[in-house]
């Protein structure tokens, strides 16, 4: 059976977990090429990671006829440009989250995918894991009754990121809401099956217009409320989701990276039931899905259209906090 061959743009740290390690566990996937704007860096990276081909320009990778899928882990400000160019080159695209700098850019990527007739997948890897499936199944079963409130949080301790990290750079479409808040918004929207209004938002700034932390209050249809908390320099790590209903609640610890440890506690009247599921990496589940989409034509679980809606929610949070949505693409290091 033919393998799906993926080409990687750039030498980002996320590449190892997201595609290099995942491909080892997924027989139908092969990391076939890597590109950087520095040919020597690309060659060294390819040699160290066992990748057959390297290119000193992104355009050269897009022109490679053996590449089926392009993985785009570039800074947020470059997601739209290079995802569109990959789609126009006839490649499927797996683009890191968030899909773009803002909803308008995300919409242009979706339009390009439609014109090209190629799959566009946003890399919300957690959505493919059994933990996410359990949360959604519990809510959809009606066991919690009418939903009343949700809270999603993702915070990382201060000191993990350097002061010049791309997440703190406005020109690269950085910010806590873009990097970590995108997860919480995506999960709450998915659980609710609806789009929120942003009632209010409050940011803590690392630099002008760049949020180091964000707190937002959301209102979903039917009276369901939500809270979003995210931070790039918190006092301690936190990652979780709580969903409350009239007849019960679900509390998930680390639903975003459950391979690093997690729990899902379901309370529906009796003793709380604690679930601990598969510790296989979320990226492996995502890689399996990628193969199913590209090779077998499976329905995309995290399509570009959902990415546009998530970007619209991110934009709305920024506006409610008195900040501008992230801006136009600019150049960045390879």
Summarize the structure.
With 334 residues, the protein is α/β, with parallel strands linked by helices. It has helices spanning 14-25, 39-49, 58-62, 79-88, 103-116, 130-140, 176-192, 282-296, 304-320, and strands at 4-9, 29-35, 53-55, 69-72, 92-95, 120-122, 147-157, 197-207, 210-219, 225-234, 238-245, 249-253, 263-267, 273-275.
Structure, explained:
- The chain is built from nine helices and 14 strands.
- It has 334 residues and is α/β, with parallel strands linked by helices.
- It folds into two domains: 139 residues, Rossmann fold (3-Layer(aba) Sandwich), CATH 3.40.50; 150 residues, Dihydrodipicolinate Reductase, domain 2.
- Strands 8-9-10-7-11-12-13-14 form an eight-stranded mixed beta sheet. Strands 3-2-1-4-5-6 form a six-stranded parallel beta sheet, sandwiched between helices.
- Helix 5 packs antiparallel against helix 9.
- The longest helix has 17 residues.
- The two termini are 34 Å apart.
> What portion of the residues fall into strands of 2 or more residues?
25-35%
Cross-sheet strand order for the largest sheet:
8-9-10-7-11-12-13-14
Query: At the first level of CATH, what is the class of the largest domain?
Result: Alpha Beta
Distance between the termini: 34 Å
Number of strands: 14
- CATH topology heading of the largest domain: Dihydrodipicolinate Reductase, domain 2
The helix fraction, in percent, is 25-40%
How do the SSEs run, as a string of H and E? EHEHEHEHEHEHEHEEEEEEEHH
Characterize the overall form: globular
Structural class: alpha/beta
Q: What is the count of DSSP helices, taking H or I runs of 4+ residues? A: 9
Radius of gyration, in angstroms, nearest whole number = 19 Å
Averaging pLDDT over every residue, what do you get? Answer: 96
